[in-house]
Automatic annotation (TrEMBL):
Stated name of the protein: C-methyltransferase C-terminal domain-containing protein
Source organism, top-level taxon: Bacteria
Residue spans crossing the bilayer: none
One of the protein's GO biological processes: methylation
Entry GO MF terms: methyltransferase activity
InterPro entries: MeTrfase_14, SAM-dependent_MTases_sf
One Pfam family it belongs to: Methyltransf_23
């Protein structure tokens, strides 16, 4: 694997911190290399890592920020941050983005694992999970399928959950030094969007000595069409260099030398997935981008309207009686960009590894749902509509009935 792909893989914020911004601007598309670009929303200062929560309020307020210049390629429809600087991003074990504490998300993962196991007859085979995080998905997939699993991620923690027979984790990147591994399935979920050069990364994976013509690759990334059409604006975060459309994801894989087996959307259209095998490179050509271009041109106005509306929502209430539900990238972005949101009482999250920490930028405390019991909470702002029913049920169990709004 290339050094550039190596450095860009998943893990958490380095102890010595990132370097300062150089102010560089990308002028060619990350996927197809074309320079026919359209600029959209500009954020002058977003936290570098939304999922690296801080141990205390002082360090949260001092967290470094980066510039996000939303850019659309009129050639292949890819969306990316033209101001992304790879050398400012580093990952360690403090990076915490597991969603496996939500029943809604666990149900999605179960269905996905069962489908992959059935489709590719994984029993007795070998799975390599690149950027496996804390290992939740790989453990579940191996249990369901009866496959051997090897997870790679420097953010993996040995004390997270029980061991699963036939599954092991390596706190390293998957590269040529592991040439003895012969995976039947390569899994890479919610990683490619973090990579500064996605096509080079894919080419490096394809060139790994353990990859055979029949090896299947399963990738999952955020779906930028959800961001544009359904105004899922809270997913625009600095650590994501790329935002794929179905066309740009397909182009990245074909250009890197893969034949696409299957592709589609999942998790309420918030994710894209693609399944592919090695093949001869097929270089990307321009696609009809007019429909998505219209969405991009409308996006800045719609984004400003939504930010203003939510700022007014907070201004009409006591912010100390408002909480945001969701301590991942959505919640962290919300409190950093919506006027007045830095004064809300707390961010609520069901992940115990987030609780007791603070949001970078605003230093908003992250609390467990139980912390709301007996507290004067007038309003809960839900960051992801897919979790509304789950949150409403949990709030009812806590014994109070606040207003619930979806951001």
């Amino acid at each position: 694997m290339t050094k550039q792909a190596d450095r860009a893989q998943m893990a958490c914020l380095k102890a010595d911190g990132p370097t300062q911004s150089t102010g560089s601007i990308r002028t060619d598309c990350l996927v197809c290399g074309q320079r026919n670009l359209l600029n959209s929303v500009l954020f002058e200062a977003l936290p570098l890592l939304c999922n690296a929560l801080c141990a205390d309020a002082a360090s949260a307020r001092a967290a470094q920020t980066g510039r996000f210049a939303t850019t659309f390629c009129l050639g292949c429809t890819h969306v990316f941050n033209a101001s992304f600087e790879e050398n400012r991003i580093g990952y360690t074990q403090s990076y915490e983005n597991s969603l496996h504490y939500s029943p809604r998300f666990v149900a999605f993962v179960e269905t996905l694992a069962e489908r992959l196991s059935r489709t590719y007859a994984l029993s007795g085979k070998t799975i390599v999970d690149i950027g496996c995080g804390k290992g939740d998905f790989l453990k579940r997939l191996s249990l369901i399928s009866g496959a051997q699993g090897i997870g790679f991620d420097k953010s993996f923690e040995d004390n997270r959950g029980g061991a699963v027979p036939g599954v092991r984790f390596i706190k390293d990147w998957f590269g040529d030094s592991y040439a003895d591994l012969r995976p039947d399935l390569v899994v890479c979920r919610q990683v490619l969007e973090h990579i500064a050069e996605p096509v080079k990364f894919l080419r490096a994976l394809r060139a790994h000595p353990g990859i055979a013509p029949e090896t299947v690759f399963f990738f999952e990334v955020p779906n930028v069409l959800y961001t544009l059409r359904d105004m899922g604006i809270w997913d625009l975060i600095y650590e994501h260099a790329s935002y794929f459309t179905p066309a740009s994801l397909n182009a990245a894989f074909e250009t890197a030398g893969f034949r696409v087996l299957d592709a589609g959307t999942s998790f309420g259209d918030q994710y894209l997935y693609i399944e592919a095998r090695p093949a001869a490179p097929k270089y990307a050509t321009s696609v009809d981008s007019r429909e998505i271009e219209m969405l991009v041109r409308d996006f800045e106005r719609a984004y400003r309207d939504k930010i203003e509306r939510l700022g007014d929502y907070i201004a009409r209430r006591n912010p100390q009686q408002i909480v945001v539900w969701g301590g991942g990238s959505k919640g962290i972005t919300f409190v950093n960009v919506v006027p007045g949101a830095d004064r809300i009482r707390a961010i609520i999250d069901v992940n115990p590894h987030k609780q007791g920490r603070f949001a970078p930028g605003t230093a908003t405390p992250i609390l467990a749902p139980e912390a709301l019991r007996g507290q004067p909470v007038e309003s809960i702002i839900v960051m992801n509509p897919l979790y509304r029913e789950e949150i409403t049920s949990l709030v009812a169990e806590l014994g109070f009935t606040p207003e619930i709004a979806v951001a």
